[in-house]
Amino acid sequence: MINLEAIHHMSGFNYCYPLSKDTLRLRLRTKKNNVDIVTVVYQNVYLHTIDSLKYEAMEKVCSDKYFDYFEKDIFVKEGYFKYYFKLEAEKDIYYCQDGFLDELSEKNYFYYSEAHESNVFNLPQWAKGLAIYQIFIDRFLDGDASNNPANTKSWGEAPDRNTYFGGDFLGIIYKLDYIKSLGMSAIYLSPVHPSPNYHKYDISDYEVIEEYFGGKEKLIELVQKAHKTGLKIILDGVFNHCSIKHIFFQDLLEKQEKSNYVTWFKLHSFPVSLEKGNYDSFGNLVPTMPKFNTSNSEVINYLTNIAAQWTEELDIDGWRLDVGDELSHEFLRTFREKIKAVKADAVIIGESWNISSRFMLGNEFDTLTNYKNRELLFQLVDQKISVKEYIDCIYSIQMQYKSVAIPYLLNLIGSHDTIRIASYYKDYKKWLFAFSLALFLEGGFVLYYGDEKRVEGLEDPDNRRAMNWNVETDKTIQKILQIRQSTEFCKGNFNIEKQYKNCIVITRDSLEGKIRFIGNLQEESLDIEYDNQNILLRSKEDFTNTLRTFDFIIYKI
């Protein structure tokens, strides 16, 4: 018997959206293992005969712990859609906007009256499955000691929250070939504007490029040389908050209620006081980082105009928006409109630590940082959850988003805000397994500088250590990154297949056919069959068919 309570669809959001002016993608949710055949029945809104109805079988695209998800793309040349679903059982059930009916008329259908091209989620194709190298500028490489601030620390000393190490744009230029050799497609830089701190997440002037890093001219040189190397450049946009040193906030402190910037910040009372911190700030924990009111039209125009100006002037390829899920929807819609007007294929990445599908409808973010996957990945490798539970959770997260956006979600195993994976996993086999699996998952990937060299670091600021150039890049990780780029499997279909007890099996389409990852997370060894001639990489040195715990193998099918 069909469980009607589990069935869900809506004519919008992630369940119904245009792929073009004549094609609509539909999603239907049912109870897991409860419905085998679903048919979508549809036609042009302005056709009214049974003979003109079209019937298409929907495909089960994935399942999580509780539900199955079916999808189908339907085509109407004129772009006007009405449809309903037929669920086959002992007695067929018809699902429409009025619920479940034995018989239905046109007034009961779901309607998507017109598929406007402006409502299509246009994503930059180059960013699909994107491999990004994240650089904390001050900690990467000191290319020009002459621009270092006073009291710069010696390279390799323990970091603190106050001092510089001297990393700059020239240092990155020197290492562009190295970054490209890792299989990277883009570089994401930490903030480039002046601030009282080395990290630059409390900006004091959005209209200037930090001279400690080499200034505007050297940043332009970096962008140009990166482009020649085949690398895109993405800047970190800190528009949620600024520094107390910013002239607008200084004006507010000086003039209080008479300031022109009273509505630019979220104030609690007057007089505004640094000591009281009686205003919203970053996390409401850091009074030195007052929070902008990004619902204010003047704030929106000022910040988005600056972002558009830098996009054009520097010829950068996108923005990663700090604390992106706290920016107002109006700000983000305006930001997207202005950035895309300058460079249509610029990528807009939102920082998000949670499921944030409300920002991924096609008019705000292109993609976001998939910290939820990182959390689940570590739970899997720590054996706190089984492979089955992990897969259920992965698909549950994915179904919170439009399926066209899933290959763009950015997986990561570390960032400037997390403990380094080399410190979390002291055991090399666990470190390698977690890292390799993350690289094989659907979506893009953000590699935090130094993780490929097993640079260690605990909580902030220890996770922002200076890059250790004396340590070699891990050969296995470098090989996977290169396989990822050379075969472009990151842009192909993704499928998690049957599990051998607690083993994970992932197949990816590539330009050269299918590539499979098998990883053993169970205590007992696993014997598998494969052709040695098709092996791309194995985590173990011997050539037996046995995978021990935390062993994995990658091969062509």
Tally of alpha and pi helices: 11
**Helix-residue proportion:** 10-25%
Taking all Cα atoms into account, the compactness measure Rg is 26 Å
DSSP strand tally: 27
Give the overall pLDDT as a whole number: 95
Structural class: alpha/beta
Q: Report the span from N to C terminus.
A: 39 Å
Shape assignment: globular
* Structural domains: how many: 4
Low-confidence stretches: none
Largest sheet, strands/sense/barrel: 8 strands, parallel
For the record, the CATH architecture of the largest domain stands as Alpha-Beta Barrel
CATH superfamily of the largest domain: Glycosidases
CATH topology of the largest domain: TIM Barrel
- Main sheet: strand order: 18-17-16-13-12-11-20-19
CATH class of the largest domain: Alpha Beta
Strand residue content: 15-25%
Describe the structure.
- Strand 12, helix 3 and strand 13 (232-237) form a beta-alpha-beta unit.
- The model has no long low-confidence stretch (mean pLDDT 95).
- By secondary structure, this protein is of the alpha/beta class.
- It has helices spanning 169-174, 176-181, 215-229, 247-255, 297-314, 329-342, 371-381, 387-398, 421-424, 428-440, 475-487, and strands at 16-20, 23-31, 38-44, 54-57, 59-63, 67-75, 81-87, 93-96, 99-101, 110-112, 131-135, 186-189, 232-237, 281-282, 286-290, 318-321, 347-350, 367-368, 410-412, 444-448, 494-496, 503-510, 513-520, 526-527, 535-538, 546-547, 552-556.
- The strands form six sheets. The chain has an eight-stranded parallel beta sheet with strand order 18-17-16-13-12-11-20-19. Strands 3, 4, 7, 8, 9 and 10 form a six-stranded antiparallel beta sheet that branches. Strands 21-22-23-27-25 form a five-stranded antiparallel beta sheet, with helices on one face.
- The chain folds into four domains: 4-119, Immunoglobulin-like (Sandwich); 131-239 and 298-491, Glycosidases (TIM Barrel), CATH 3.20.20.80; 241-293, Alpha-Beta Complex (Oligo-1,6-glucosidase, domain 2); 494-556, Sandwich (Immunoglobulin-like), CATH 2.60.40.
- The chain is built from eleven helices and 27 strands.
- The protein is globular, with a radius of gyration of 26 Å.
